[in-house]
Write a structure and sequence with these properties.
Layout (H helix, E strand, L loop, with lengths): L9 H37 L2 H20 L6 H11 L2 E7 L2 E5 L7 H4 L11 E6 L2 E9 L3 H45 L14 H56 L6 H31 L11 E2 H18 L4 E4 L4 E4 L3 H18 L6 E7 L3 E9 L12 H12 L3 E7 L2 E14 L3
Parallel strand pairs: 6-8
Antiparallel strand pairs: 1-2, 1-4, 3-4, 5-7, 7-11, 8-9, 9-11, 10-11
Helix pairs in contact: 1-5, 6-7, 7-10, 8-9, 9-10
Length: 441
């Protein structure tokens, strides 16, 4: 899976989202708090709310005083009444002198002789006590609770906005996860051509990219397996046909010999020779088929330690040339040995050269020389075989399985095999990757 930069990670994106949500919700709280305070202040001033509430509480106080026959000296009862109201405070004046202050209920205000102030904002309400009439200055925090309610509402709305912004950001990722989940279900259904959506550069995007790469690899593997199955089926079908033809001939000649339907001893030995040829042909085909099954198997090929190109091929090519010369062919060897090392599987190398030799003997025209030369590139060392092809007696004489085996064995050794035929000239090129290259000094 591709590496994700720290600034592109989901953790960093979540941190950014939280900071953004906090800033937006904080700004929203400041704006709504200012608007709420302004609205409450406007209503408080324009509606004479304080005057109405003062009158209401004065009425309650008068009722309480009358029911309990309180005098202006019953300060404990007055303090208890104020305590129960919770939001009000009052001052009691008699004959213009402060007699009681609920803010200082235990202090003897009469001794201090504090006179009532003549202020425009101060309103004095008459209350009838048992010992005479007194003036009450009352004030209360009537709107305090509404300011508290407004702040609580503003905090709740700001928190809701914070959660909403965070959830919207998370929802985007969850929606992408659900999309990936649905796309994975499509792949599970067998549609390997469906591309996974890659959005962004975070861990989810890296995961999606990894899934899409895996999809591509798996699709290619399935395609290769399907191609291999089709090729194997075609090869087996053709080989079955090629084996059935000489087998039918062998059975025919065997039946003739078994029934002694030969006219002469010469014809008898002629049939024996034909049976021998056909059985050899069958053996060759079955050997090719076995070799094909071997090289297309799943067993991993173990390559040997690096050896110089000359060490691996010098003796094998010498034996190949000697065998071809004995078989009536003329060979021309043009090799430039360099200090290159290759890693091969010697069993496969021997099989490759045996197949090439067998094909040359069977399909090369002895009237023309066989050229064997070296071929070097920056990263590979190889061998090229070139010959003139002779005309085959029958089309069924060539199955192509030998060349297919050579290609498979070269692939298993990380090499390549390229064959081409042009105007009757057949060329086969084997290339091995070099593990080291150092030209001779």
């Amino acid at each position: 899976m591709p590496m994700v930069r720290k600034r592109d990670s989901i953790y960093f994106q979540l941190f950014q989202l939280l900071i953004l949500a906090a800033l937006v919700s904080g700004l929203f709280f400041l704006v709504t708090n200012w608007a709420g305070d302004s609205l409450l202040n406007w209503f408080y001033i324009s509606s004479n709310y304080e005057e109405k509430k003062n009158g209401e509480y004065i009425g309650r106080l008068q009722e309480y005083v009358s029911q309990n026959q309180l005098s202006t000296e019953d300060t404990k009862e007055l303090t208890e009444w104020v305590r129960r109201q919770r939001v009000v405070a009052l001052q009691l004046y008699k004959n213009g002198i402060l007699m009681y202050d609920s803010e200082y209920p235990d202090q003897d205000m009469e001794a201090e002789q504090i006179e009532a102030g003549d202020y425009e904002w101060t309103v004095y309400y008459p209350v009838q006590f048992s010992d005479g009439e007194a003036e009450i200055s009352i004030y209360g925090m009537y709107f305090y609770q509404y300011y508290n309610y407004a702040v609580i509402a503003e905090l709740l709305l700001s928190f809701a906005l914070f959660v909403g912004i965070v959830m919207l950001g998370i929802r985007y990722k969850i929606r992408y996860i659900r999309k990936l989940s649905s796309e994975i279900e499509i792949l599970e259904g067998g549609d390997l051509d469906y591309e996974i959506t890659v959005t962004g550069r975070d861990e989810l995007a890296a995961l999606a990219k990894g899934l899409d790469d895996m999809r591509g690899s798996f699709r290619e593997k399935v395609r290769q397996e399907a191609h291999l199955v089709a090729a194997n089926h075609k090869m087996i079908t053709e080989m079955s046909h090629d084996i059935r033809t000489p087998l039918t001939t062998v059975m025919l000649y065997t039946e003739i010999l078994r029934k002694r339907q030969v006219k002469s001893e010469e014809q008898f030995w002629e049939y024996i020779d034909k049976i021998d040829q056909k059985t050899r042909r069958m053996k060759q085909l079955t050997d090719h088929l076995f070799e094909y099954a071997l090289v297309t198997g799943e067993t991993e090929v173990k390559l040997e330690e690096p050896e110089s190109f000359e060490t691996v091929f010098y003796d094998l090519l010498s034996e190949t040339c000697a065998y071809l010369e004995q078989s009536g062919f003329h060979t021309e060897l043009k090799f430039e040995w360099k200090k290159e090392t290759v890693r091969v599987n010697m069993e496969f190398v021997i099989r490759v050269l045996d197949n090439i030799t067998s094909n040359l003997v069977k399909y090369a025209d002895p009237a023309f020389p066989i050229y064997i030369c070296s071929e070097h590139t920056e990263k590979t060392a190889g061998i090229v075989f070139e010959n003139r092809s002779r005309k085959l007696e029958k089309k069924t004489d060539s199955t192509g399985i030998g060349l297919e085996n050579i290609k498979k064995m070269m692939e298993r050794m990380n090499g390549t095999c390229a064959a081409e035929e042009r105007e009757g000239c057949f060329r086969l090129r084997l290339s091995f990757p070099c593990t080291e290259r150092q030209d001779r000094v």
